[in-house]
């Protein structure tokens, strides 16, 4: 569920964008080891442990050997560290006839990811900009339909999309279904509701005066977008990129339905490794494969955590 | 050598002057140990014997995950060269819609009608006299796999039928062994029910329900007995929390469970674990009560592409799948029986021999997959898994089952 | 503002009047630019939905076909135990997920907002699960909750032999096993939204309440939360859209089991369509899901966009 919508809402008068940069706003806690402080940090640390537990389990398990896993519990630290599971998950694990592990899918995923992220964000950016600054009669109606679309389970749309891709492809005389282009289009379509909402709310928060002044100066639709709006959009672009990278990288359903075997993304291999039980379930390889697949979005989150909150403050809370 | 000649003949038949190398994407959900090894035999055969290359489209997670992908690809106009289905009624609609390649000329040239045994498997591929799929193996559900080790630990004889199996259960419990290993997935529980129905209600009653959809028989005494036994199984399986069928098989292999009702594919797992039939484990066809095999299996279908080169390659592959060498290699690896009676498996063990004997003696029934629609099968699965994981009464489950049969077509 | 100046310089010769240059172009570009979105909304979402509804009145099996059967699919849907169980499960999961996500999300955000040292570290820890897919989430928690190797096993190893915590194999509490995993994955995002909302609260409010001697918790309940109403609306809509789509997690963690005790509507749709090869039944179930979405969403959309135009 990366299609998270930062559904708009707050029609706050303040400018939280700048505010977030200033740091926390709550009442200042006392600087001593007061009871409040112990309670505060105690709670945070306990909760943090709950959140970290699965990551710990994954890491620890991925460097244990199978006999050790069967003997001990999932939380026990490894007695003997082995990286064999990681090697196997990356390069040797078999799915069907192919024994190349996840490595086969990594570059496919990258090839799917980059154009999908670029196209989906571009379309949503332009749409959000239009909806906030260049409204015309009926534009909100289409937008409402789009938002309802954010609630539709993807699986329901599987066959309609297949038929649309086939018919549009036939109409244009190109093979859309089963091609990278088709998959990129599908990702753009399903990323659109949330991203458009995000950009629409963000641009709406940019002062109207700036926009009016530019219009008076004769700048047109694209001029204002590229010269004024785009340079100001960094926070919201970061949020959009994070959401799309996560969503598209983690996608299994579209990747497996709308591509061919030789261009399956990494998640399809992950499913094949995890769901193919070759004799005994190799938990260590499964965990290593899981971590390897999650590495890209995890990296993005760890690197850009701060920007993410800032961007959400800008796009979600401001309306 | 023989294979090459046959293929040459086939090439001439389909009228391609020269075989063009085609990359054939083949989709299937065979990803577990024995399955993957078996499908590799197909890939090898295609790569070594023809100019074409096998592009493997494995999707793990079983038919429910793989099937929508296959169907999407077909209706989307970008079909794979071939795909695996459990044959029978699942593909009916695709054939009616004209989406699948007619293999009748291959079947005639290769004489499938004479070699495929039991013939019901070829019948399942045939619609209005035309052949649309290539059956590759025979699977039968009717097996009870027993761990000799577990019974030794408990100090009781290895059972020879269901009644003995139930009777021996308390001794196993005492030794800390779960009598019956059952995975958590609905098809496993439903499958076990099917096996018990044939074994305990008898062939006639089973056919009346599954073939003629006679709900009165399903409400009758014979089936009450089956449901009572199924309720016993529910108690016997208590205490082992596993999901996948091969995890359950593994419990039998390790001797932590007494037995498992599972199809012959479980034998692949015993083989991988290096166990010998008769010594380490025992198999009872038809639960030891009614020695009969239901014969279902897997088949490959070939979508219509409109491209003559691909079509030629598809027909070559179809013929190749049924050729004797490939049949032996594939079925030995998968633990299933070959669909032709005229070949010998290289690695025949005790259990396989018993299966082959039953087959030769014509003690066969068609598989439930061939008789029921996928919709009915799913309804049955849901009901059986609900029963198996709750305290639903025998009367309730029997009545609901009878209603499903009543509405089946 | 160099850009604005630049634009101003170029447009200098023009009169600053209300006259709009390139009126046609200006009115055309926005419509042109919105075409992809309009096409998506109309063709994919509206079209796909209508298509689904239409075919829910057919007996389509493996392939969509137009053999009309009226309301038969709906009759069968509502007489199927699994569907009823699915809805009950979703309601149970939905209520608990909504309440807990909001409470945990807000509490964490409020704690982090109290000038906590290492805020970045805590925030990252709370948010990182969101980077992982539900499939991964389900697998990891399936394992942690595994009775033999996981929590139950560890506690028993410590000597508490009778300790029982086996939610994934107990039909009565299996939904809570799913909830533990779902909350782990989703609360971080809600916390971020709440945190962003809290940062939007004016510092003067805090000063004022402190001067008045109002306890901190009371300030949150009586002043801050009412002020954050819109943030909560955002969060609720977000969580709700996630709840309705609940599918991957169930498949990865329990496959709907034990028995049918953790089935959910989205899974019912998938299994009907692709497992049972009964598209009509799957479409009928998805139509019911869509209907409930519309019922939930229209009032919200009316509040948000309403007043200006009908929605």
**SSE order of chain C:** HHHHHHHHHHHHHHH
CATH superfamily placement of the domain at 16-25 and 105-315 in chain A: MetI-like
Can you tell me the overall shape of chain C?
A: globular
Please state the overall shape of chain A, judged from the principal axes of the Cα atoms: flat
What composes the largest sheet of chain A? none
What fraction of residues of chain A sit in β-strands?
Answer: under 5%
Quaternary status of these chains? heterotrimer
How many helices of chain C does DSSP assign?
15
CATH architectural group of the domain at 16-25 and 105-315 in chain A: Orthogonal Bundle
Largest sheet of chain C: none
Q: What is the CA-based Rg of chain A, rounded?
A: 24 Å
The CATH class assignment of chain C is Mainly Alpha
* Mean pLDDT over the full residue set of chain C: 83
Total number of beta strands of chain A: 0
Order of helices and strands of chain A: HHHHHHHHHHHHHH
Task: Tell me about this structure.
- The complex is a heterotrimer of chains A (about 325), B (about 400) and C (about 300).
- By secondary structure, chain A is an all-alpha fold.
- Chain A has a domain at about 15-25 and about 105-315: MetI-like (MetI-like fold).
- In chain A, about 65% of the residues lie in helices and about 0% in strands.
- Chain A contains 14 helices and no strands.
- Chain A has helices at about 15-20, 35-60, 65-70, 85-90, 105-135, 140-150, 160-170, 180-205, 210-215, 220-230, 235-250, 255, 265-275, 285-315.
- Chain B is of the alpha/beta class and about 400 residues long.
- Chain B has 21 helices and 13 strands.
- In chain B, strands 2-1-3-12-6 form a five-stranded mixed beta sheet, with helices on both faces. A four-stranded mixed beta sheet of chain B has the order 8-9-7-10. Chain B has a two-stranded antiparallel sheet with strand order 4-5.
- The radius of gyration of chain B is 22 Å and the shape is globular.
- By secondary structure, chain C is mainly alpha-helical.
- Chain C has a single domain (about 75-305), classed as MetI-like (MetI-like fold), CATH 1.10.3720.10.
- In chain C, about 70% of the residues lie in helices and about 0% in strands.
- Chain C has helices at about 1-10, 25-35, 35-55, 70-80, 80-110, 120-125, 135-145, 150-155, 175-200, 205-210, 215-225, 230-245, 250-255, 265-275, 280-305.
- In chain C, helix 5 runs parallel beside helix 9 (about 175-200), helix 9 runs antiparallel to helix 12 and helix 14 runs antiparallel to helix 15 (about 280-305).
- The two termini of chain C are about 40 Å apart.
- Chains in contact: A-B, A-C, B-C.
- Chains A and C meet through helix 1, helix 2, helix 5, helix 6 and helix 7 of A and helix 1, helix 2, helix 3, helix 5 and helix 6 of C.
- Chain C: It is a multi-pass membrane protein.
- Chain C: Keywords: Cell membrane, Membrane, Transmembrane, Transmembrane helix, Transport.
- Chain C: It comes from Wenxinia marina DSM 24838.
- Chain C: Belongs to the binding-protein-dependent transport system permease family.
- Chain C: Its main location: membrane.
